[in-house]
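User: Predict structure, ligand flavin-adenine dinucleotide.
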Amino acid sequence: MSHDHHEPQGIGSATNKAFAQDYWFIVAGVVGLGVAVRVVNHIEAKSRLKSCLDASTSKYPTIPRNRLSQFWATATAVVREIRHPQFYIPIRGLRWATPLPLGRILVLLAYWAVVAYMMGWNVVEDDVYYWERIGYRNGWVTVAQLPMLYLLAMKVNPIGLLIGSSHERLNWLHRWVARTMLITATVHGFHFWTMWARADFVEYALETTPLVKYGIGAWGILLWLFVTGILPLRRLAYEIWVAQHVIASIVMLWLVHVHIPDSARYLLWMSVSFLVFDRAARWALLGWRNIRLRPDKTSCQGQKGFGHHVSVQAVGETTTLVTVKNVHFAWNAGQHVYLWLPRVGLLEAHPYTIACAHQPTTGPDICTCNSVQLIVRAHGGFSKRLLAYAKAHPDSPNLTGFLSGPYGVPPLWEAYDTLVLVGASSGVSFTLPILESVVRMASSESKTVCVRKIEMVMVAKRGEEIEYYVDRARLAAREARQKGIEVVLHVAITGEGQVHQRRDLPTRDPSVDHSISEPVTDRSAGPAKAPCTEKCHGCCETKEKAAEDAEGENTSDGSEERTYTSRPDIEKVIREPVESAWGETAVVVCGGKELTARTRNCVSRLSDERAVHKGTGAQGIYLHVEEYAF
Ligand SMILES: Cc1cc2nc3c(=O)[nH]c(=O)nc-3n(C[C@H](O)[C@H](O)[C@H](O)COP(=O)(O)OP(=O)(O)OC[C@H]3O[C@@H](n4cnc5c(N)ncnc54)[C@H](O)[C@@H]3O)c2cc1C
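Assistant: Predicted complex:
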């Protein structure tokens, strides 16, 4: 029996190396599939927009046009129905333990199936090499995954860019790859350790082969990263957590470097290059967005050579409105940036969704003075300090701030027939720009919009949390109506003693007319029309109550507004527009775990119940979930 862990290749080396390469071939294949799906979806969306431009070609431009697109729509609907369901744990203190949605669980099971196959294929033979063979195999399976760990942690993420996703949406997989690696690394170490222990060889191995100690060190760091990455711990002191996480990851790379044989080093260098590329790209992006070599102090609001003028304004007791001026990049509704305000947080950059639609440049020499607006809800650290600063300096001069991004790859919102936008509290800062950007596109001669109807749901405990959004939503709704898009606003103020706030949410914009014309509309005041089937029982539980609570109002500009004193029945809010849609509906939800899980389950059930794209004529439902968390 060979006890030599120095042995550069290890037993079964050819197979082990082949598995490491196969792992990356599989990754390339899966990413390739993701790219193909993205390309087909993009072509679909573009051809829909083309049909919408020329209304004479089709009365229903957002439905599948031929057998191929019908097949694609059916396959998409089936995948979506499987993907969305999520079991939500409503117990206070345990909500963080809510499992992943079913789609992610299935991805994880597939990943584990591949890894388990690689761990165990042809290694369990009852001979003298039993322990060593399993040990080497699992060492290779562990190191094969190492670059994946670093690839999935990248903010400037190549996988995201290719498949049309973003770093915060891939982060869950980064964590699970790390956990999987901890298991394979443990199996690797356990088998060598047991082999040495059986031969009474442990002390000698530790003394004579230093790489064993480095291996144990790398495993210890992986364990540390796993423990500190568990949810309640991860969120205790986020900045400290990030700092130790980055340092530990770099130290782990060095320990792995001295532990593994030369033939596996390419995997280490892949990891190092992902890490270095990401950091370099982030710094380059930061410089590109914030440094102007010849700032024009006279144009727009006055450019800065280094950073941007930033104004902050407290809006109510929990919200700060941040305006980053003179930003020269385009963005899409749903993208976010990292905000760095050294005066408020010297070493902190926080992600915030761009809460306004981009104003396209009107001519080659005309500066459109685009400002990025961020709506920041006060939590613990930075955001609380920011609010305190804004309150203490109501007339303060501009701060200097820096932006990095924009990140995120949202879909083409304008290519859907109907949009249902559900936002809770600061989550409205995600959905409102979608409404505004669609309206802006509808007003632009160069853009095509397929959207016919938008339902916008804004939920908060206190009126002051969303009054700012409601003002803007009303303004956008009025504009939308002028462009032929029907908009229904649902405003729910759910906190105790907030009844007075829901009817008369004050407005700061005198151009918005809030006068109410009677009578109350039939659509909103009546009981829920949708049948409450067995299947949708969970979503229907509050139907009667919500229907009673909802009050419909037609504002004088004709747009419809419904107000609620309890949470609106999400299923009802989604079902109505889906049932009346002429084509595909996009449901967008941004809020806490409970709201997002409820919406996922509702959309999945609704799609299944209506047999979307399965011969009933029911059209597809796309779901976009944002939780403002990794
Ligand atoms: C893609 C994305 C978009 C977001 N958009 C908005 C928005 O438009 N408006 C809004 O009010 N909030 C938004 N958030 C949430 C916002 O980033 C956090 O609330 C903020 O970073 C909290 O930091 P804090 O120091 O103020 O609070 P803390 O109390 O220190 O942190 C609260 C929690 O926020 C998270 N967090 C803290 N710092 C960071 C960070 N640098 N990066 C990621 N997460 C962090 C941690 O989970 C932490 O536990 C968004 C988050 C993400 C991921």
